């Protein structure tokens, strides 16, 4: 009897232990226990030191898209992925871009000639800074030209800034504009400068935004020193990707499937010369300007009063001669084929091309994905293959305009529409120690719940707790522009997220190297493995859940918030506007239906695994959810952008536009199309409702 009692006690405690494993979204009770065991194995499989090895290897040399150095990085990615056990494929493209800055100069011509520096200083502490292959500061897709003209200061070079200049009677026609980085994508600075008649544009990072006004500068601190220069693309087409092949993949010349290419003169590429300089050199121009003082908010961090015009006594010469041609780039995609649903894909990605070494941007993310590949490959070899396929993409040509990932999405459009569960982006994903993220409504819960499972380095807290800080839950943003999620999310309707750890970086400068990373980003090299664990838990839950664990009811919550915000903004210029009544009514129904169907799915999993025939049918419907927002005609500012739910801001490039067709009318301060848009958004929400209702019908079918 005593022995039987002991056995009973042990069994009860084992049962209690099992019951402590909370049932995960999309999993049955037994499935949750199995997943919990698998996740414990996965977390142990992540080799933290491998991140440092990969980062040191990838960032040994500068590797701009289209160069031999970048092909060396490509080959390393292929080797590591294959050794990890992933089926690895190269996707080549011939795209139109400059892989070299060409020739350029910036010179003060009068009152006294002075040739300005366009390259970072060599620093004794940072041996990488003397690398012979480092390039001067440059902006890809600049126009070529040689102009000498007066100077006008345009603050950040936003549309509002140029309109402010006009309102103050400042004419930029035929003059060279100088503007500071920030507030919008640099390409729009060039676009607006050209639109207002400027002859050229000089861009610099002001110390008030990153420099001595923020703290210690490099190499003593993580902020821009007086010679640091932000490089970057200026591409501002009405679509994303290769400028010659909108909507179609830029397949290599001579491919069986011929790609029709635009002629360069048919594009919207800039024609004026544009180049960046460091603030130490910008000071030499700005310090000699003698026009009217700038208005409130335009003063930067340099130690003098900023002025709007240089006047006739100050002339500057700007010359850029930048070659642009068809250049080969290569995406590297590794696949861990699913054991049960191989045609349902979870895709993780980060680009690997960089403006120089790219230690934080992007290759901290690249190295993390290599570490993750090794951990997932080890699990697969131990017979723990995921149920759905996990794909890991290393994209090329992102820095020039999110080109490589876009060409792949355009090439794989039909397969992605049918198969893609989610895209998880990790561009510069381990740039520091501050946790952050943004996601589609359906993926926000997956992202935050996975963070609860990961220990934050040298802390008793989880990543979730550190992320949340003093709040009840973490702050989660909405995806905007500027990285490889764009084509997945905004063109083909694949739910996407972007996450990782960040901090102050020497963004797009020659100093973004391994020395900087080791000294300032993460000296202990613990964050790479931590983010690999977080990314892996997200991927494995999406891959192994019986039902794809989208958060259905979050759509109504987020849509209601975005529509309320849009209504408030419209009422600022149209006080009589009553709101989007039809859409709000549809959202109320969406909230009711999605909550009910979530409960149905949860109940069907609580009693065990559901009927095997229902699982693929329900998941096929779940894959259609985000497609509810796609419209064939696209957005009014660009038909390539298909989603009514989200787009990058076409006037700033980086910001997130929620409900972009409505946001476009707000930007124009127009009301005549709002009734039609109310009907259009109502229809999209109704499509979402119908899909969710169909899921409920399948789940309750006998």
Automatic annotation (TrEMBL):
Domain Peptidase M28: 331-514
Domain Transferrin receptor-like dimerisation: 582-691
Assigned protein family: Belongs to the peptidase M28 family. M28B subfamily.
UniProt entry keywords in alphabetical sequence: Coiled coil
InterPro entries per UniProt: PA_dom_sf (IPR046450), PA_domain (IPR003137), Peptidase_M28 (IPR007484), Peptidase_M28B (IPR039373), TFR-like_dimer_dom (IPR007365), TFR-like_dimer_dom_sf (IPR036757)
Regions crossing the membrane: none
Annotated coiled-coil segments of the chain: 667-694
Positions of the PA domain: 147-208
Pfam families reported for this sequence: PA (PF02225), Peptidase_M28 (PF04389), TFR_dimer (PF04253)
Cell inner membrane listed as a keyword: no
Name listed for the protein in its UniProt record: N-acetylated-alpha-linked acidic dipeptidase
């Amino acid at each position: 009897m005593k022995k039987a009692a002991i056995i009973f006690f042990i069994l009860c405690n084992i049962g209690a232990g099992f019951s402590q494993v909370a049932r995960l979204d999309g999993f049955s009770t037994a499935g949750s226990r199995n997943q919990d065991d698998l996740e414990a194995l996965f977390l142990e499989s992540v080799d933290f030191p491998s991140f440092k090895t990969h980062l040191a290897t990838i960032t040994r040399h500068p590797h701009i898209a289209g160069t031999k150095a970048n092909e060396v990085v490509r080959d390393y990615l292929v080797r590591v992925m294959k050794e990890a056990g992933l089926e690895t494929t190269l996707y080549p493209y011939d795209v139109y871009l400059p892989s070299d800055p060409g020739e350029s100069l910036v010179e003060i011509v009068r009152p006294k000639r002075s040739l300005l520096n366009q390259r970072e200083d060599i620093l004794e502490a940072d041996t990488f800074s003397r690398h012979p292959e480092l390039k001067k500061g440059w902006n890809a897709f600049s126009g070529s030209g040689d102009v000498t003209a007066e100077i006008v200061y345009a603050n950040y070079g936003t549309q509002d800034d140029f309109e402010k200049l006009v309102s103050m009677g400042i004419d930029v026609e035929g003059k060279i504009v100088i503007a500071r980085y920030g507030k919008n994508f640099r390409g729009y600075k060039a676009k607006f400068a050209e639109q207002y008649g400027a002859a050229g544009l000089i861009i610099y990072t002001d110390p008030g935004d990153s420099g001595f006004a923020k703290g210690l500068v490099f190499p003593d601190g993580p902020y821009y020193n007086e010679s640091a220069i932000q490089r970057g693309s200026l591409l501002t087409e009405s679509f994303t990707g290769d400028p010659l092949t909108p909507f179609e993949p830029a397949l290599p010349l001579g491919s069986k499937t011929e790609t029709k290419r635009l002629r360069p003169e048919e594009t919207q590429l800039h024609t004026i010369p544009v180049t960046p300089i460091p603030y130490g050199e910008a000071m030499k121009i700005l310090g000699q300007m003698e026009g009217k003082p700038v208005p409130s908010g335009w003063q930067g961090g340099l130690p003098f009063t900023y002025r709007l015009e240089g006047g006739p006594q100050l002339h500057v010469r700007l010359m850029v001669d930048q070659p642009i041609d068809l250049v080969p780039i290569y995406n590297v995609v590794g696949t861990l084929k699913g054991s049960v649903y191989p045609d349902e894909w979870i895709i993780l990605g980060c680009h690997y091309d960089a403006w120089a070494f790219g230690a934080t941007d992007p290759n901290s993310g690249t190295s993390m994905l290599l570490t993750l590949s090794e951990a997932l490959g080890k699990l697969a070899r131990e017979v723990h293959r995921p149920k759905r396929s996990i794909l890991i993409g290393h994209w090329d040509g992102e820095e020039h305009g999110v080109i490589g990932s876009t060409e792949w999405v355009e090439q794989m459009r039909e397969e992605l529409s049918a198969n893609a569960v989610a895209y998880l982006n990790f561009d510069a994903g381990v740039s520091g120690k501050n946790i952050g993220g943004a996601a589609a409504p359906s993926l926000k819960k997956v992202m935050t719940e996975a963070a609860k499972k990961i220990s934050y380095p040298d802390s008793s807290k989880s990543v979730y707790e550190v992320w949340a800080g003093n709040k009840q839950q973490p702050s989660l943003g909405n995806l905007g522009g500027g990285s490889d999620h764009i084509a997945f999310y905004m063109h083909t309707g694949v739910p996407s997220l972007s996450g990782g750890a960040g901090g102050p970086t020497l963004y797009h400068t020659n100093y973004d190297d391994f020395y900087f990373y080791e000294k300032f980003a993460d000296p202990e090299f613990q964050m790479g493995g931590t983010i690999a664990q977080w990314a892996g838990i997200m991927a494995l839950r999406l891959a192994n859940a019986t039902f794809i664990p989208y958060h259905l009811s979050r759509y109504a919550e987020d849509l209601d918030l975005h529509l309320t915000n849009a209504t408030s903004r419209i009422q600022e210029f149209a006080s009589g506007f009553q709101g989007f009544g039809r859409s709000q009514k549809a959202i109320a129904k969406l909230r009711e239906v999605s909550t009910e169907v979530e409960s149905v799915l949860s109940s069907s999993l609580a009693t065990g695994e559901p009927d095997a025939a229902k699982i693929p049918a329900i998941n096929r419907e779940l894959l259609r959810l985000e497609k509810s927002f796609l419209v064939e005609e696209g957005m009014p500012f660009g038909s390539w952008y298909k989603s009514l739910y989200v787009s990058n801001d076409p006037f700033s490039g980086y910001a997130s536009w929620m409900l972009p067709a409505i946001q476009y009318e707000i930007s124009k301060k127009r009301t005549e199309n709002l009734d039609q848009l109310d009907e259009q958004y109502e229809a999209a929400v109704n499509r979402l409702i119908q899909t969710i209702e169909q899921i409920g019908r399948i789940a309750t079918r006998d």
